[in-house]
Design goal:
Nucleotidyltransferase, domain 5, 11 helices, 50% helix, single chain, five-stranded mixed sheet
Amino acid sequence: MNVFVFDIETVPDIDGCRRLYDLHGLSDDDVAKAVFHKRRQQANTEFLRHHLHRIVAISAVLRTSEQFKVWSLGDLESDEQELLERFYSGIDRYAPRLVSWNGGGFDLPVIHYRSLLYPINAERYWENGQKDTSFRYNNYLSRYHDRHTDLMDVLAAFQPRANAPLDEVASLCGFPGKMGMSGSKVWEHYAQGDIKSIRDYCETDVLNTFLVYLNYQRNRGNLDQTQYLSECHLVRNFLIDSGFPHLIEFEKAWVD
């Protein structure tokens, strides 16, 4: 089965927050400060609830029998609707196994809420067996099957108290972990118009996720050690040949 590892980066939905909290007349930055403050008062965190996020980047690793690639959907000028349309188009085209880190807890719920705002057809993604019986007991929303594998959820044995951060798990496995920035800095970079750094950071996250996924597949017996090393070699060569500084830096930070 084709494997499609994905990750999203988000900022506050400024226009939506203006409407919901009557913040008209405030600058974008002041709206963001207001909703972060409100959230701190509510939950002692600035991390907003899922429906208040807006997607500014979706990055992916695609592994098929013929290719490996890592990239960010769309381009620097792509709006949220285009990013979502490209995400669902990839599902339509490749019918892949989705792989994520906390995708069930964050990325997919945000994608669901944001998709409601646009005339987007996501029929294949929502398939649950009504038109394709192969999706009846194994679909993208089924937690205990692997058409979507949320690695954080699976490795924690579906116990939230056992959840671990991707960068630490990746680093323990010898992979680079966090590089360049962190999720808490996305709004700052976005406000400065620095979409490229956000996309680059997102791409390193999906690389870490894919590499941890390879270890998981080796544990399951779906890859033997020779196959595992071959996959790692394939990834390394792609990164070295990419010509992109953040991908080359990732390869250099990868422990042998």
